[in-house]
Design a protein that fits this description.
It contains 13 helices and 2 strands. Strands 1-2 form a two-stranded antiparallel ribbon. Strand 1 and strand 2 form a beta hairpin. The longest helix has 28 residues. The protein is elongated and about 90 Å long. The two termini are 36 Å apart.
Length: 301
Amino acid sequence: MRSTTRAPERERAPAGAAVVRVHVPPRSVRHDLRAVRIVLYRELLRFWRDRMRMVSGLVQPVLWLLVMGTGLSSLMATGGGPMGHVDLKTFIFPGVCAMSVMFTAMFSASSIVWDREFGFLREMLVAPVSRAAIVVGKCVGGAVVATLQGTVIVAMAGLAGVPYDPLLILEMLGLMFLGALALTGFGVVLAARIQTMQSFFGVMQMAMMPMMFLSGALYPLSGLPTWLSVLTRLNPLTYAVDPLRQAVFRHLQVSPELARVFNPGVTWNGWRVPVGLEILLVVVMGIGLMTVAILEFRRAE
C-alpha cells in the first residue's frame, strides 16, 4: 500500500528540471505529399517481398487464359462459319487482364485490416499528416501494384493471339491503372469498416465473384436476356472491361461481322456507350469511392 501511494511522486519531474518539448511540425501540402509517397513505397515494398502473393495472384488468370481458353477454343473453331474465326483466348484476354487487376487491387486493401489488428494503423492516424494523404497513398499504391501484376498478363499477349503493339500495350496499362484505382478505392471503403481479416476476405469473395461474372469478361454483352443485360450494365467492372476489349479488337484483323458478335460494346437502350464515356465513368467512380474512403477514415478513431 505504501509503495502504490509513493509511485506517482517518484515519476514526477523534480522542481527546476528542464522540460523537453516535442516539436510537431504544422500540416502542409508538402508533408501530405511526402506521406503519400511513403505509404505508396510501403505498399510496393510489401508486394515485392511477398513473392508467394505475386505467384498466387497469377495462377487464376493464367488458368482462365491458357487452360479454359485453350480447352473451349475448339468449340468456337467448330462454329466459326464463313465469317472467319476468333480464338477464345483472344476474346477473353482483355477480361482476364481486368480480372487480374481486380483481384490484386481489391485484396491490396487487406493491408488496412492487417495494420488495424496489429496497431500500426493507429500510429498512422495520429501522425501529423492529413488522413486523406494516407487514403490516397493506399489507393495509388494498390493501383500500381495491381497494374504491375497485370503487366505480367499483358506480357502473355502473344499466347492469346494479341499483337505486341507498343501503343496497344500502353493503352491497356493506362486503362488497367484507372480500373485498379477505382477498385482499390472500393476495397479501402470496405476495409475502413471491417475489423477482422476473416470478415474482410469473406466480404471480398462475396463482392468479387458477382462483379467478375457480370462484367462480360468471359462472354459477349449482346444477345443476353433482359435481366442479365440490366445487371451487366449496373456492374461497374463492365465499364473497365469493355474499353480493354475495344482496344484489343482495334488491333485485330477481323471481319465487321465478327467484330459485331464478339465486340458489341456496352449499350444503353440501344445506344452504344462511347469508350470515352466509359473511361470517364471509371474515373468518376474512382474519385467517388476514394472520397467515401477519406470520409470513413476521418471518422475513425
